[in-house]
Amino acid sequence: MADAGGIPEIACDESGSDGENLTGGNTDVFAHASVLLSAESAAGHVQEIRNRIRSPAEEYKANHLLREKHRAVLEWLLSVSGPLYGHAHVHLVEKSFFVVDRAADLLLGDPEAAVPLFRHGRRTFTEAEWKHFLEAANQLLWVRHEGEPDTPVEHFFRTLEELRQRYPGTAAAETLSRLAAERSRALAYRAGIQDGPFVLTPVLNPLLPSILHTAAHWSAGGRPVRLAHDRQNMLTPERIAWIEGAARVRGIRLAGLRLVVSRLDARVQLADFLAGIARRIASDELNGRGDPALTALLRPYTGAAAVWGDERSWARLGPATESGGRSAQLNSPV
């Protein structure tokens, strides 16, 4: 649980990573889970899960626990009497809101504009129009784009103009007008993408800011922490150095981040279970098919810093005093 210097090490893993493809990927929620347990106790809990499920699989994943026949094991794992309660945390990201949040921050320098745009836009536009807007914003911000650098800019601003003309005088159109006035910022972003910081820290990848949120959660109160994260292609040495530097700038007491192999670290396996479980439960709640019992069991683990725009689902998923709509500003380059 702690190194020789007494600094606790938090084990982390994620679920729902589609890179920067947030509108056309396989999942609509990203979850970053973290666990603070000793290696010995974590190994014991993983073995107990295996004993309860009795699957011949060499490596267990969240899907094992999410099967209906193992419902009792899942409820035990998340319950007050389970091994994770009080020792784990989940940072949730609603991907469609993350796209709006990032676009508002990049073009307006005002992430707070994301909340009204997200909520008014969904209520004002048709489902197809809203999806088209999100896809255009995703393409604008996506670092990897084949073809002329201005193409995503033209597509995005053409989409803005079409929606402004269809819905004049609406609250959504007011924010769209603000965005439409920032074509120069969009062009500068696309033109400078290869030479700027965004290749190192892609605006649309939720992993890096989620790691910073996780470190901020566990170091609250000023205690330093280390992170042990499952190996991930995104976490290159350069990006790990960026995370550690960004944490210092923001006053987050992150003493270091190292990569480990999940199957060799029971703590990370538990974080993997929790991330996959949280993503599924949160996605079900987001899409109106939530299981009230499971949502209630997840709620003690979800952090108030979640990047979430949907009010209805967040009222069930998040801390009781929070209203949702958090910013992703921790992704901003140093």
TrEMBL record:
Superkingdom classification of source: Bacteria
Annotated region described as Disordered, given as residue ranges: 1-24
Protein name: DUF3800 domain-containing protein
Organism: Streptomyces asoensis
